[in-house]
Prior knowledge:
Layout: H1 2-16, H2 31-59, H3 62-86, H4 90-105, H5 127-133, E1 141-144, E2 148-151, H6 152-161, H7 173-191, H8 195-201, H9 205-221, H10 232-239
Antiparallel strand pairs: 1-2
Amino acid sequence: xxxxRTLIVLTAVALxxxxxxxxxxxxxxxxxxxxGIYKFNDSVDKAVIKPVARGYKAVMPTAxxxxxxxxxxxxxxxVVTANDLLQLKLVQGFSxxxxxFVNSTVGVFGLIDVASIGDLKKxxxxxxxxxxxxxxxxxxxxxxxxxxPSTLRDxxxxxxxxxxxxxxxxKDMRARNQAYLxxxxxxxxELLDQEKVLNEAxxxxxxxxxxxxxxxxLSQVYEGNPPRQRYDDEESSDTAQPQPxxxxxxxxxxxxxxxxxxPQ
Length: 264
């Protein structure tokens, strides 16, 4: 849920600085294709995914939904730990590994987030972020069918993260698909409460989600301290040369406050 709040805040900041809607974004060269996939995803969501998520939320008690969320979050800690080590975050990797161990045992297969009661805080790392911290750029923004916003780099990362995931290790394809489906429904149900805020804030839903996603990933790569963005007006002011004064050869031009009417 913290990630969702962060996404909303970052997008609000982004929209504040936008001069107009439908502006060309160089990070999205495939925008016509992406918008088509976005419309497809939105149609599937409204027709199938959202009603199922609402039904799940209606019949599942709050405690049960929390346990399901905790269970899949605990499985994700395996992927998080692997990426900690790839980023040479050894202390964090040990913490996340212990978090998975504690929740899988004392927390009854991760249904109860016992680790968060202590000092084993939840972290979020994936191979897309690992590539980013290795210096690999985003590549073009992509909207994936059903899965939603991504980039070329993050799409590769999503594929690689599938291998260490415990769900991928399930040999029974039916059980594996059911696990992925349950996780997706649980995740979608968590977003239902956020939709009112999102709908009120969105001018162009496609741009809103795209800009929020890119800002959030940039913040994650730089550990919450991304480099300051340079804009065209700043760049032009940096490169602009001072215009010579017509009176540069006169004594009055060397004074701190030259008067345009000073006698020559």
